[in-house]
Write a structure and sequence with these properties.
Layout: E1 5-11, H1 17-30, E2 35-39, H2 52-57, H3 68-79, E3 84-86, E4 89-90, E5 95-96, E6 101-103, E7 108-112, E8 128-132, H4 136-150, H5 155-177, E9 183-185, H6 192-206
Parallel strand pairs: 1-7, 1-8, 2-7, 8-9
Antiparallel strand pairs: 3-6, 4-5
Helix pairs in contact: 4-5
The structure holds adenosine-5'-diphosphate and the ligand Nc1ccn([C@@H]2O[C@H](COP(=O)(O)O)[C@@H](O)[C@H]2O)c(=O)n1.
Amino acid sequence: MQSPLIIAISGASGSGKSLFTENLLNAFAIQGQPVQILREDHYYRAQDHLPMEAREQNNYDHPNAFEHELLKAHLQALRHGEPIDYPHYCFKTHTRLPETERLNPAPVIILEGIMLLARPELLPMYDVKIFIDTPLDICLMRRMMRDVKERGRTIESVASQYESTVKPMYHEFIEPSRFTADVVVTQGGKNQIALDVIKSHIQQAIQ
Ligand SMILES: Nc1ncnc2c1ncn2[C@@H]1O[C@H](COP(=O)(O)OP(=O)(O)O)[C@@H](O)[C@H]1O
Ligand SMILES: Nc1ccn([C@@H]2O[C@H](COP(=O)(O)O)[C@@H](O)[C@H]2O)c(=O)n1
């Protein structure tokens, strides 16, 4: 098998990265082409050694919150045609789940996450770099609804985390990483023209 094409999709929390990734995946699934998705969230560090209060206070919007060494090792393995043991993460307990999932290499690997373009040592791993550029007020609104519904949070906790870490870290790390992208996508996960352009680029590259 030829070396896989690795696509990194980044942007603020709530910008539409996951939806964009899902929509891209669906476009390939219709054609029966195998695509492997990796989410940077799964590489948040395990925190079993910390009490819950300490976990709740952690800054999850700093690059050091992620085990990027493991992510890099996994990308290298997939490039060499080897399977990986993909970690799973729980947003309610703020730590890794005990079980991992065996993932096989595929011709196209799509990675999505907030800090993927903010780590210079990860940039050479990617063939295509995409930044989803969505106004922060829209990101906050979407995050508020999602975190209360799916991640076991209260409106108060989302608002206070946003002020203390999410927003300042966005300006320090994520916003500047936009300039490393090959493509900047506006209008979030439903931008059909961007999806079509990226899909046809991928198809040409893997022919
Ligand atoms: N263009 C869009 N229009 C409407 N809702 C959207 C759009 N893009 C994303 N969403 C919704 O916003 C929420 C957050 O999007 P998501 O893709 O999970 O963001 P991210 O992965 O960047 O944190 C989800 O409920 C998603 O369905
Ligand atoms: N235990 C955790 C870990 C992460 N977060 C927040 O998740 C955001 C990144 O995930 P997205 O799917 O929204 O891109 C990030 O902004 C962290 O603040 C968390 O709240 N708790």
